[in-house]
Design brief:
This protein is mainly alpha-helical and 237 residues long. It has one domain. Helices cover 78% and strands 0% of the residues. It starts with a helix and ends in an 11-residue tail after the last helix.
């Protein structure tokens, strides 16, 4: 590997971990998709406690689980394809050499790049399956929620139950988000097979797209406007 390869690979991990850390801290100070949806989750659970029939709530959880299950299954299929590429590395290298702008690639370099993709999709799979488990925990909590008008819990206890149930759903959403980001960064790794500088451009573009969608998108503005949250983060708590 050249120094350009090593530097681009190091920058990849810095960009991924750095953006994840930035997004988590920034979400505590400004509205983003994660923080705005958490506000709605709390409102959802508070309204759930007022309903006698909670089938609609469990149906929403079920729909979310189906979407995440699709991505978990896709991760397994991608991993199977990557393992196949490792087994047939010489044929894959020959295909790469016929592409324009692609330099000579050794078998060891090709296997390293594929192994990076394998690690990324293993990480994605574990996050998707953990998200599924957390949504199943939320289903149990909804099933155990106190009945409306019941006298066994005070109003403060009911609110605390709703907030903590929303936190479980929020954590499931974070795990899903981590898995989904893995798909984005895996697309950037594809550029490494062509040239390290294309790899760098790829993951920088991914960071820019993620930031734009999570903090500056029209979808976020619409979500905030729907709840009357077009306020500074602290004043809307």
């Amino acid at each position: 590997m050249t120094w350009t390869d090593i530097a681009s690979l190091a920058g990849f991990f810095v960009a991924w971990v750095g953006y994840t850390t930035f997004a988590r801290k920034r979400a505590k100070e400004a509205w983003c998709l994660a923080s705005s949806l958490q506000w709605y989750r709390v409102e959802w659970m508070l309204r759930m406690l007022e309903r006698d029939m909670r089938m609609s709530d469990t149906a929403i959880i079920g729909n979310l689980e189906r979407v995440i299950g699709f991505f978990a299954s896709t991760s397994i299929l991608v991993l199977a394809g990557l393992v196949t590429a490792l087994a047939a590395n010489q044929a894959a290298i020959e295909v790469l050499h016929h592409l324009p702008l692609v330099g000579r690639t050794t078998a060891a370099e090709f296997e390293l790049k594929v192994l990076l993709l394998v690690l990324i999709f293993v990480f994605a799979f574990f996050n998707f399956t953990w998200s599924l488990r957390q949504f199943s925990f939320a289903n149990v909590l909804i099933g155990a929620a106190p009945e409306p008008g019941g006298s066994d819990m005070t109003q403060e206890e009911r609110r605390r139950f709703a907030i903590n149930t929303a936190k479980v759903i929020d954590q499931a959403g974070h795990s899903y988000n981590y898995g989904f980001r893995s798909f984005y960064f895996a697309m950037a790794v594809m550029g490494w097979f062509i040239h390290p500088l294309l790899f760098v451009a790829g993951y920088l573009a991914v960071v820019l797209v993620l930031y734009q969608r999570e903090f500056r998108s029209r979808t976020l503005m619409a979500i905030l406007a729907a709840g009357g949250q077009l306020l500074p983060r602290d004043s809307a708590k």
